[in-house]
Amino acid sequence: MAQTSTQIYLIISAFIFGLVAIIHLVRAVNSWPFVVGPINIPVPASLVGFVLTAALCLWAIRILTSG
User: Fold this and answer.
1) Which of 29, 30, 22, 31 is nearest to 50 (CA)?
2) Rounded to whole angstroms, how far apart are CA atoms 60 and 40?
3) Where are the domains of the chain?
4) 64 and 14 in contact (C-beta within 8 Å)?
5) What is the DSSP letter of 2?
6) pLDDT classification of 2: cutoffs 50, 70, 90
7) Residue 36, beta-bridge partner list
8) pTM of the model
9) Helix (H) or strand (E) holding 57
10) Whole-angstrom distance between the N-terminal and C-terminal Cα of the chain?
């Protein structure tokens, strides 16, 4: 079955958002430091990042599987 460009887009989006969500979660669980220039990004920011990117991943999967 040939996939439409929308399906391919949703697959790629779900994969990327899922990967970023996993990275955020691993960083939060291990309390790894994250410094951007002089700014230290707190661990709770990764928890927020995990929730947001996981939600976007699940949204893409839901759209992909519903149609």
Assistant:
1) 22
2) 31
3) 5-66
4) yes
5) P
6) low
7) 39
8) 0.87
9) helix 43-66
10) 14
pLDDT digits 0-9 by tens, 24-61: 999 999 999 999 999 999 999 999 999 999 999 999 99
Any bridge partners for residue 35, and if so which? 40
Structure tokens at 34: 């994250």
Residue 1: DSSP 8-state? -
Residue 27 tokens read as 């960083």
Question: Which pLDDT belongs to residue 3?
Answer: 78
Q: How far apart are CA 42 and CA 7, in angstroms?
A: 36
**Which residues on neighbouring strands pair with residue 40, listed in sequence order?**
35
CB atoms within 10 A of CB 8: 10
Q: What does the angle CA 48 – CA 26 – CA 63 come to, to the nearest 5 degrees?
A: 60
Alpha carbons 53 and 47: distance in angstroms, whole number: 10
* Residue with the two structure tokens 């990042």: 49
